[in-house]
Write a structure and sequence with these properties.
CATH topology of the largest domain: D-Maltodextrin-Binding Protein, domain 2
Oligomer: single chain
Helix content: 25-40%
Largest sheet: 5 strands, mixed
Order of helices and strands: HEHEHEHEEEHHEHEEEHH
CATH architecture of the largest domain: 3-Layer(aba) Sandwich
Shape: elongated
Number of helices: 9
Structural class: alpha/beta
Radius of gyration: 33 Å
CATH superfamily of the largest domain: Periplasmic binding protein-like II
Distance between the termini: 112 Å
């Protein structure tokens, strides 16, 4: 009897040990791993754009990315003359948006653009701005020639500066102003900037009494910071903005689609919202 009881106890102990070992080695069943979705391969589209396009192209680039999830638009804003120089020196860009035809044509003539892709997509005009407080009491274009006025314009190489000089030359040829007016205004220039955004900033900060800028630089967000003096059409200059694909672009199809979007109804609506006009 004792032998049977001992055998039973040994068998029970072996069975218990087996159960314990099984519990330690066999964990709860794991759910099947969910495959990680493959990330969408993003394509970068590099857009070189004139400084006067900063606000509008930033918004257009955002809208374009929403419509094309696989595309990341990388922007570079500067004076058109600086962007031209960068491209000439080998900087990579897919699209060039210039504030005048001069710099686009220079790149085209050097064989650095896809000629067939070049075309106007928007236009602009110029205006005079003063700080809202108007410390120099500038209310007319004639007042720009008053002694002591601190005027800021663009350099002669940046489109906005070239256009400003063309306007002053037109006014010099008009008997209402004459050559002495042009000379007096240019004498009042205290600074020449390489971008129109720098001209706007100097006036806004009160570092200048007036500046010659694009109409599109006066936005709903900053309008209350300036007083605006319109330039009559007979003196004003129509700034023509061309777009084109850079010859060395590795994304020519995407660059073409981006330019098409600029010229589409949604693209044009955004351009108009920012104060530009259609060509």
């Amino acid at each position: 009897m004792k032998f049977l009881n001992l055998t039973a106890l040994l068998m029970a102990a072996v069975l218990l040990a087996a159960l314990i070992v099984a519990g330690c080695t066999t964990g709860p069943s794991q759910p099947a791993a969910t495959p990680t979705p493959t990330a969408v391969q993003q394509k970068e589209l590099t857009v070189f754009a004139a400084a006067s396009l900063t606000g509008v192209v930033t918004e257009i680039a955002h809208d374009y990315e929403l419509l094309h999830p696989g595309v990341k638009v990388v922007t570079n804003f500067d004076g058109s003359q600086a962007l031209r120089t960068q491209i000439e020196q080998g900087a990579y860009a897919d699209v060039f948006l210039s504030a005048n035809t001069k710099h686009m044509n220079a790149l085209r003539d050097k064989g650095l653009m896809e000629n067939a892709s070049i075309g106007l997509f928007v236009k602009n005009k110029l205006a005079v701005i003063t700080p809202a407080s108007n410390p120099a009491n500038i209310h007319t274009l004639q007042n720009l020639s008053n002694p002591g006025v601190r005027l800021v314009i663009g350099t002669k190489d940046v489109p906005v500066g070239d256009y400003a000089r063309q306007i002053l030359t037109k006014m010099a040829n008009d008997t209402a102003y004459g050559p002495s007016y042009q000379q007096a205004v240019l004498k009042n220039v205290i600074s020449e900037e390489t971008t129109v955004t720098a001209v706007v900033a100097k006036v806004q900060l009160g570092e200048a009494d007036a500046g010659i800028v694009y109409e599109s630089d006066i936005t709903p967000e900053n309008r209350n910071k300036f007083m605006i003096i319109a330039i009559p059409d007979k003196f004003n200059v129509i700034a023509e903005y061309p777009a084109g694909i850079v010859k060395d672009s590795r994304n020519k199809d995407e660059a073409s689609r981006f330019i098409d979007y600029l010229k589409s109804d949604p693209g044009r609506a955004t351009l108009v919202k920012f104060g530009f006009a259609m060509p």
